[in-house]
Design goal:
about 325 residues, five-stranded parallel β-sheet, flat, binds pyridin-2-ylmethyl trihydrogen diphosphate, alpha/beta, 10 helices, binds FE3-S4 cluster, about 20% strand
Length: about 325
């Protein structure tokens, strides 16, 4: 490779407001209450974030029965079903809910539409924690559709009383394909009052689309279980990149991917710390890609305040509340 190689860095990329809030919640809980702080599921779907918090005293568990009596447990950014909230209350556990407010918005929609007795089609991926949490709000009203082909299997009580909702981190284009097919089957299909696919998911997809159109290779930094990161790989390929790969960090990049590549597009999922992207930029610079251009499609300024239960305790101790 000659020294002409360039890196097109997509922006926005990396941390969204909900991830920042969730990670800071665990950090501040560790500082304020002291370890151990239990966290149900990965606080966000990033290996590096989880390992870093583990070193500081966070204990990640799959279910609440792994949390001892009187312990403090944080619910992850992806949300929990009412059944999990009830279980925590019945066990008298102290809880802090780090569910992203934009996931909570979808829960509220599910509750409201179930109260109106509508059939709810939730577009999302089976087994994902967010889908489990949202479905748990109204299991008897919600059915899951994972992709456009699934639409033919949907059965409803009254075709004129159907609404769709979605997971927050899906491919925008594929979701609207699914919605179009739903509307073909149910012309009176109702929509959520505002987008369920969140601003961060949308912004990262718009940015990587533009970058991918100019890149032979796209690298997406993010963990394998991070839905929004995996979607960025798919979107990059759809947008014209010859190849696109997801890596947790620079150490996972295969040098053979660079053969014949003059422009590398680079982005990261919403749960990815910027230091991992910097690591990839450094790795590429050492291999003939020293020029870095940022390609920004929009600015982001959203910030969420910390969970109420944590803010209250921090205030009581005069600690900084951000
Ligand atoms: C919570 C809700 C949505 O797998 P997914 O993309 O959902 O999750 P993360 O943790 O990779 O991204 C942030 C997030 C948290 N997105
Ligand atoms: Fe929330 Fe979207 Fe981030 S739902 S956690 S702002 S990816």
């Amino acid at each position: 490779m000659t020294a002409e190689g360039r890196v097109l860095l997509a922006a926005p990329r990396g941390y969204c407001a909900g991830v920042d809030r969730a990670v800071v919640t665990v950090e501040k809980a560790l500082d304020h209450y002291g370890p151990p702080v239990y966290v149900r599921k990965q606080i966000v779907h990033n290996r590096h974030v989880v390992e870093t918090l583990e070193k500081r005293g966070a204990i990640f568990v799959e279910e609440l029965d792994e949390v001892p009596e009187d312990a403090l447990v944080v619910f992850s950014a992806h949300g929990v079903s009412p059944a999990v909230q009830t279980e925590a209350a019945e066990r008298g556990l102290r809880t802090i809910d780090a569910t992203c407010p934009l996931v909570t918005k979808v829960h509220n929609e599910a509750r409201r539409f179930a109260k109106d007795d509508l059939d709810i089609v939730l577009i999302g991926h089976e087994g994902h924690e967010e889908v489990e949490g949202t479905s748990g709000e109204a299991p008897e009203h919600i059915q899951l559709v994972q992709n456009p082909a699934d639409v033919e299997n949907v059965e409803v009580r009254d075709p004129s009383r159907v609404v769709w909702l979605s997971q927050t981190t899906l491919s925008v284009d594929e979701t609207y394909e699914t919605v179009d097919r739903l509307r073909d089957r149910f012309p009176d299909l109702m929509s959520p009052p505002s987008d369920d696919i969140c601003y961060a998911t949308q912004n990262r997809q718009v940015a990587i689309k533009e970058v991918a159109a100019e890149s032979e290779l796209v690298l997406v930094v993010g963990s394998a279980n991070s839905s929004n990161s995996v979607r960025l790989v798919e979107v990059a390929l759809e947008a014209g990149a010859d190849a696109a790969y997801r890596v947790d960090s620079a150490s996972e990049i295969d040098e053979s991917w660079l053969e014949g590549v003059s422009t590398v597009g680079l982005t990261s999922g919403a749960s990815v710390p910027e230091e991992l992207v910097s690591g990839v930029v450094g790795w590429l610079a050492e291999r003939g890609y020293p020029h870095v251009e940022e390609h920004r499609t929009t600015e982001e300024s959203l910030i969420f305040s910390l969970p109420r239960e944590l803010r209250k305790d921090l205030k009581g101790s005069n600690a900084a509340v951000s």
